[in-house]
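Crash report, auto-generated. Payload:
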Amino acid sequence: MVKKDLVHLKKRESQIGKEINQRKVMINKKMILVNRPIGIPDESTWNLEEENIPELTHGQILIKQKYISLDPAMRGWMNNTKSYIPPVEIGAVMRAGTVGEVIQVNNNNNFKIGDLVSGWGGVQEYTLTNGEKYKTINDRNSPIYRYLGALGMPGMTAYFGIINEGKIKNGDVVLVSAAAGAVGSLVGQIAKIKGCKVIGIAGGKEKCLYVKNELGFDEVIDYKNDNIYSALKKYCPDGIDVYFDNVGGEMLDAALAKLRMHARIVICGAISQYNNKSKIKGPSNYLSLLVNRATMKGMVVFDYQKDYLNAENQIREWFDKGLLKSNESIFEGIENFHEIFLKLFNGNKRGKLILKL
Amino acid sequence: MVKKDLVHLKKRESQIGKEINQRKVMINKKMILVNRPIGIPDESTWNLEEENIPELTHGQILIKQKYISLDPAMRGWMNNTKSYIPPVEIGAVMRAGTVGEVIQVNNNNNFKIGDLVSGWGGVQEYTLTNGEKYKTINDRNSPIYRYLGALGMPGMTAYFGIINEGKIKNGDVVLVSAAAGAVGSLVGQIAKIKGCKVIGIAGGKEKCLYVKNELGFDEVIDYKNDNIYSALKKYCPDGIDVYFDNVGGEMLDAALAKLRMHARIVICGAISQYNNKSKIKGPSNYLSLLVNRATMKGMVVFDYQKDYLNAENQIREWFDKGLLKSNESIFEGIENFHEIFLKLFNGNKRGKLILKL
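Recovered output after restart:
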C-alpha cells in the first residue's frame, strides 16, 4: 500500500468515527446541587438534570460510572464554610467518589478503553475528564466497589487514622464510634489485628450483633439502648487509650470522661452534628485532656495520599488472609440518590453506603 | 574530758532544748477547707484555725512560711472529682505552694536553720514536715517570692507549656489568653524571645496597656471591650499557629475559629469555667481541629519535674539579661485569704497573686 492510501484511509476512519459519535448522542444524568440545605437535605437540595455528552476533545476520556460513594463528609461539602476542601458550588454536580469504566479515549496515553478507574467522578452517570487524579484499578480479584470502601477513602481513613494518628500499640484499649459504619468497622478490625482491645459503639441490636459477632470487636455498646457512661465503666474500667470519633456530641463527651493518661482522640468526623441547625455541641468534658495529658487531633485522609498504595496493599493482604471483613449497603438508581443519601444519617444501612448505577 | 562526761552533757543539752521548746509554745494559724463550694467559694468554704505546733520528731523541720502562692488551679483542687491531683480533703489545710524559712531542725541533714525553702506548705503560717519534696533556694539575687511566680510553678508552666507543648518556632503566630496573668504574661514573653508574633488577650484597658507596653506583646485584645472575633481577624489575618489557653469558654472558641494548618492548642487551664455551677461549656468550634489538622493537648506542669532546674536557670538568665519581666500582686495577712483568693477570678490583680504572711 502506498503512503497516500494510508493517509486517506486514516482520514476516512476518523470521519466514520465522528459520524458514529454524532449519530449516537449520549445522555448524561447528573445530580446538581441547587440549594444549600439547612439541617437535613430535602428534595429541593438537588436536581437531576440531563445533558448531551459532548465530543471528546484532545486528551479527554469518558468514564461510565458504575458505583458512587456516599459519605457523611458530603454533607459538610454542601455548606458554604471554610473547610479542608472547597464547598460544592451551587449549580455544580454533587461531588462524590466513583468507580467506573473508561468507554472513550481521545489521545490520552494514560488510559485505554475498558480500564476501571476510581476518582472524584461526582454523582452522575458519565464523567468527561482529562483523567487527572483518576487511578486505574488493576486488581481483578476484589469486587470493584470495594475501591469505594475498604480499598478506597474509608479504608485509607481507617488505616492512617488508627495507626498514624491514633498511634495504637499492642494492648491499647480502643473505642470506636459508628462501629458498624464504613470507617468505624475497619478501624476496629485493624485495631484488633494490631493487638488492641476494641469496644465499638453502634445503634440498635442488629448492628451491635454484627459488630461483635461478625467483625469480632471485643465489646459493643448500643447507644440507642444502653447508657454509654455505665457501659464504658463496665467494658473499659481502666479507661481508654484511643478514641476514634466519627460522631461527636454525647459520645465524644462520654469518651473524654473515660480517658487514660496520654490518651489520643482522633477527630475524623462528627456525624451527629452535621445536620445541626444550631451551633455544634462542643465537648463539655474537654478538660479531661488536661487531667490526662491527652491529645485531641483532627485528621483529613488526603494528607496521606503519598502512602495510599502501601495501605491499599496491606489492606488487600488482610482481606486475602481473612483478617478483615467489609460490608457494603448497595442501592440502585441515580433517581433514588436523595433517599439513599439520607441513609447515612438515619442509620438505615450497614458498612459502606454505595449507589449503583 | 572522759566519755561519761560527754554522754552526760549531751543528755543535759537535749533536756534543756526540750524545756525551751515547752516553755515557748508556738501557735500555727491554718486555713482549713470545711465545705466544698459550688460556684464561687464563699466565707463558709474555709475556716481559719489555730493549733499549737508540736515538738519536732526525729527528721522533721519547721518552716515559717513567708509567702503563699494563690493559683486558679486551687479552685479545681477543692472539687471532689478525679483530676491530675487528689482533691483537698475536707478538714485538711488548703493546699498551696509556699516559700519560707527553716526555723527548727531535728536531725535532718538536708536542711539547716535559716534555709529558704519552697514547696507545698499549704495556706498556713508554719509547716512541720520531714522536708520531702521541699527545695532549698540558694539564689540570693532574686526576690524570694519570685520562686512562687516566674521561677516557680507559673514559670515552669509557661516555659514547658509554650516550648515543649506549643512547640513554638521562629515566626509562629502565638495567641495567649489571661495575658496579664502569672502564666500568660510569661508565655507571651518567652514566645517573643523565641521570635514569635504574640497576641495577648486581657480584660480591661489598664491590663491591656501593661501587656503591650510593659511586657512587649505585639498586640493585645481587650476581651471586656473588643469583639474577639474581629480583633483576631485584624491582628492575625492569616490565623494562629499556637493558642495557649488558660481561660476556656468563648476565647477558646474564638481561637479555634482562627487556627492555621497544623496549629497547636495547649490546654493549661480554664479559669472562665472553674466556678461554673452548671456543665462546662465545651468548645463548639472543635471541628476546626479536623479542618486544620490541628492538635489540642492538655498539660500538667508536674510532668516536667526532672527538667525544672534547666528551665529555672534559663528563666533566671533571661531576667538577668532584662529579657523577661514579672509582676506580682502581693497582699498581706492569712486572715484576708478568702478575699485575696477571689482576686484570681474577679480580675483585681496583675501577674502572680501572692499572700504575704
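Post-recovery validation: The CA atoms of residues 247 and 272 of chain B lie 5 Å apart.
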